[in-house]
Design a protein that fits this description.
By secondary structure, this protein is an alpha/beta fold. The protein folds into 2 domains: 12-120 and 185-211, Enolase-like, domain 1; 217-353, Enolase-like C-terminal domain (TIM Barrel). The chain contains 11 helices and 11 strands. The strands form 4 sheets. It has a 4-stranded parallel beta sheet with strand order 8-9-10-11, covered by helices on one side. A 3-stranded antiparallel beta sheet has the order 1-2-3. It has a two-stranded antiparallel sheet with strand order 4-7. The longest helix has 21 residues, at 8-28.
């Protein structure tokens, strides 16, 4: 199997922990960190008071959409010093009437003051029903009805189902807020990205350098191929083979329904484990592989799949369970050697153990 230079625990306890501390400092006082990175005083930054907000609408008629909700809208936040921050909206979730929200919420306020306090989450936590709770399922194309776990498919999702990113996926799902309010708030999320964009432009540095606290970082990263949620188990070997032929140095599985093209239905996670084995066999022992089920598993399934990923030398394990299921994330971090489920999830789990 592929030889790792260091274990996940060693990685997280070393440079990543140091970088996380710098990132935390940047979140508490982003403007101070930005000024520090370029060797100036915070008071020397340009006037970052927001003068206007607007939305550009682009023509998408000849553009391939990754998500059906894409609108072609680009948020614009402009300061008195002429610096413009941007963000695209309508990619995964619609952000209707953002401009109407942004005018009273942003205009006349300073980026320096807003960034430390602006948040798109109220801090939600859930157990997702427990160790062996019903898990999300991704049925094959054209299917409608309800699966064996009671989740609807092929139709608008019910409470607690569907997208992991909000709406009815949150309503009735057992999620509880720590601080009250809505989660996630896509209006503040869009503003947050635009304001960080402004801060980076104010000091002529990319955001990752501000978050690093001036620590020298890489400026190039390897690109890897990322699969779609393919219909059947048999679709993944041709897909990873094509990625290797195209020169990609790594491949990430986005598993689908976990079913064979023909034959009886099997548990979804069991089908995913077949995909994991077959992809490793086709790609070879030294090829970089990752697995991202997009929060599809309960804790039992996630642990079972994770142990197979360990055995087969997969580099990382992304979003195995709902990101608010802190207890499951802690157990996965403790017991698996495969790389972080996701940067945010792992950071949350590690902080909960301190």
């Amino acid at each position: 199997m592929r030889t790792q230079d260091m274990s996940r625990r060693g990685f997280l306890s070393g440079a990543t922990a140091f970088g996380a501390a710098a990132g935390a400092a940047a979140y508490w006082d982003p403007a101070q960190m930005a000024a520090q990175v370029v060797g100036v005083k915070k008071g020397d930054l340009p006037d970052l008071t927001i003068k206007e907000v607007k939305v550009y609408v682009t023509d998408l008629k000849d553009i391939h959409k990754l998500n059906g909700t894409e609108t072609g809208e680009i948020v614009s936040v402009v300061t008195h010093s002429g610096i413009e921050g941007n963000y695209t909206i309508g990619d995964r979730n619609r952000t209707a009437n953002w401009l109407e929200w942004a005018k009273p919420a942003l205009v006349g306020k300073n980026v320096v003051d807003m960034l430390p306090t602006l948040t798109s989450t109220s801090g939600m936590k859930t157990r997702s029903g427990g160790f062996d709770a019903p898990s999300r399922r991704r049925p094959g194309p054209g299917a409608r009805g309800r699966n064996a776990m009671g989740f609807s498919f092929g139709a608008p999702p019910g409470p607690g189902e569907g997208s992991a990113f909000g709406g009815v996926a949150v309503a009735g799902s057992g999620l509880q807020t720590h601080g009250g309010g809505e989660w996630p708030n896509y209006y503040t999320a869009a503003a947050d990205v635009a304001l960080w964009d402004i801060l980076g432009k104010a000091v002529n540095r990319p955001i990752y350098q501000i978050l690093s606290g001036g620590i020298k970082t890489k400026d190039r990263v390897l690109a890897y191929a990322s699969s779609q949620h393919l219909p059947t188990i048999e679709d993944y070997v041709p897909d990873v083979t094509k990625a290797k032929q195209q020169g990609y140095k790594g491949y990430k599985i986005h598993p689908g329904s976990g079913q064979h093209a023909t034959g009886p239905e099997i548990p979804t996670y069991v089908g995913h484990m077949e995909e994991i084995r077959e992809v490793r066999k086709a790609a070879g022992d030294d090829y970089v592989l990752m697995h991202d089920p997009v929060q599809m598993y309960n804790e039992f399934e996630a642990m079972t799949v994770g142990r197979l990923l360990d055995d087969l030398g997969y580099l990382w394990y992304e979003d195995p369970v709902p990101t608010m299921d802190e207890e499951a994330l802690i157990e996965l971090v403790k017991k698996l050697d495969v790389g972080p489920p996701s940067q945010a999830s792992t950071s949350t789990a590690l902080m909960l153990q301190l």
